[in-house]
Amino acid sequence: MNNKTRTHSLCEKMPYIAIILSMVIPMILLGIGGSLCEKISSDAGNIGLCIIAVIVMLVFWRWFSPEFKGFVKTGCPAKDICIIMIPLGLLEIFTLIEPLFLQRPFYFNPSLSAVFMGLAAGFGEETMFRILSLAIVMRYVKKEKRFAVMIILAVIFGLSHAGNVTQGADPLMTVAQVIHSTFMALLLTYLYLETGSAVFPIFAHGLHDYISFTTDPSLSESGIITQQYGTGQLVYELVLAVIIGVASLWLLKKNKPVKANELWNDKWSII
């Protein structure tokens, strides 16, 4: 490897196949690793997912180095990051004050397991559905097609939650979660592309899931929605997700992602 630049023929000639592989391969590795660690305990399974996700990111970085500069360092100043994080802040505030609008008791049940579950969701799902795939999009997909690919990836992320029904999730709530997760994916995509750092979508995803795990009494111990929400709660959460997701999409598209393209050109050492 050293300082020589690799030739990535698959990415250059068939970028969409490369994008699919960038999701499928981590999915397989994380699935196998998580299952093995889960034999020790559920917490060990979640911790194992985080470790494997980091290893996968390191392998990706080394494979594309020195051209690719890595996932951690951000490409924008602290002031811009604070502005970029506003949609996330609004989402969490309105999620936490939901009981005020619906006039129901506050519920908060924190646990170490919820922390590990949130971290596993942040590291695991972001690695599988965004961190690697979007990095490839921002290097090998033509600029005029990137926006459409981002939306397709968000839909794929949403649909991935349909499998929850096989784990005991309520069918109606599974459909709602697919919709909710699709719009959440737009927010996470926005955070990642605008900052250039995987830290922010991982943090945002983990934080949101932790809040959900500890404030929603309808969730099972494994984070599955087994009971139907009332109409008010269901509408509230879907409308909130749609508003935040559409706003993130608009913010990303506002400059025809010129700013994001420039930032990622720098991350990929493109002059």
Structure report:
The protein is globular and about 60 Å long. Helix 2 (15-38) packs antiparallel against helix 7 and helix 9 packs antiparallel against helix 10. The chain has one domain. The protein has helices spanning 9-13, 15-38, 42-64, 78-84, 86-96, 98-102, 112-140, 143-160, 171-195, 199-215, 231-253, 258-267. It has 271 residues and is mainly α. The two termini are 21 Å apart.
Short note summarizing the structure:
The chain is mainly α and 271 residues long. It has helices at 9-13, 15-38, 42-64, 78-84, 86-96, 98-102, 112-140, 143-160, 171-195, 199-215, 231-253, 258-267.
The span between the termini is: 21 Å
Encode the helix/strand succession as letters: HHHHHHHHHHHH
Number of strands: 0
Helix content: over 70%
Question: Regions with pLDDT < 50 over 5+ consecutive residues?
Answer: none
Structural class: mainly alpha
Main beta sheet, described?
none
Mean pLDDT: 93
CA radius of gyration:
19 Å
Number of domains: 1
Shape annotation: globular
- DSSP strand (E) fraction? under 5%
Number of helices: 12
Descriptors for this entry?
271 residues; 12 helices
Task: Compile the SSE list and pairings.
Layout: H1 9-13, H2 15-38, H3 42-64, H4 78-84, H5 86-96, H6 98-102, H7 112-140, H8 143-160, H9 171-195, H10 199-215, H11 231-253, H12 258-267
